[in-house]
Write a structure and sequence with these properties.
Order of helices and strands: HEEHHHHH
Strand content: 5-15%
Helix content: 55-70%
Strand order of the largest sheet: 1-2
Distance between the termini: 27 Å
Number of strands: 2
Amino acid sequence: MRPWFPLLVGSVFYLAALLWAATELPPDGVPLHFDAAGAPTRFGTRAEFLGFGTVVGLVMIGTGVGVYALVMRAPLNAISVPHKEYWTHPSRSARLRRMLAEDMGRLFGVIVAFLALVPVATVYATRADPVRLPAGATWLAVAVLVVGLVVWCVWQTRHRYRPAV
């Protein structure tokens, strides 16, 4: 699998969710912000929601592409990695770049795919009476993402980037 493929898949999910929301959201009265309990604190138009969603998506995807390009082309001394002396040795630098590119593709792919939940949840919230997000499910999704990212980062540091002896 190509290192950028997970980012592409996450981007497709996000685009599909945004396009679906464009067909499902009402023209006015779209919740744009929610408090921690899931109650909307600001409303706007469908165009405003979709415009902001497009900008956020493009920024996240652009950041993922930029980080991918950075790890593939930047000087290795500019990149922070555990056991730097081992990984920056010329005989291992190509492998390091490949590993970093795979990891950045996965990381940004997961984050952009997670962001696809925003338009889906917003459509769900507009269908509820009164308009609101399911706070428990929302916080559970965020917690799963955060815990998953922390576990993945710890695994990376302790195992993936550990030098072969």
